[in-house]
Amino acid sequence: MTESQLRLRRLAALAVLVVAAGAVVGSGALQGRLAVAVAWGEALIARAPLAGMAAFVVLSALSAMFAFFSTGLLSPVAVAAWGAGWTLGLLWLGWLLGGVVTYAAGRYLGRSAAGLFVDDATLALWESRVTSRAHVSHVLLFQLAMPSEILGYVLGLVRYSFRTYMVVLAVTEIPYALAVVYLGESFVAGNAMTFVLIGGAILALSAGVFYLVRRVLA
Fold this sequence. Notes:
mainly alpha
């Protein structure tokens, strides 16, 4: 399977996930059961607020390092416990910390360490496309298009400017963090229409960036 086919399959899977999750939010019975789980998580956090915040930041950092894990699933609990503003800030901070770790692993521990988290073929492919002199606009586009856990390792391997990478990461993670928070809010409110619209906007952004990356790399 080519990289383009893989990306298209991921977009299709995301579309199915958004529709399915929207159906859950719109279903009174299913949403009610999940609301009980959210309330339980909120009560657990209320017992130790600072520890809960620290755990959420750490989990967010891990989600920026590993492809198989995402704190998006925890966003309804976070929004219910702290509100949209705090959730946005904590999520953004965690993703930045995860970016720092991935960059450091690539730069100071090398390919063997990065290969523990990203397969060698993917690392080699993107290392051939991204160099230490890559223009910031290209890095910005790649950061929007690629899973965030990949680019940090690659830029560390090629010894790209850490300061520039962090600026790019800080800017590009904001729209995704906003989307995750608003998805969590719409879930808590049981607003299926808003949930699907936000999910559709994420899909449109991903598809648009995918098209731009294909043109840049053509």
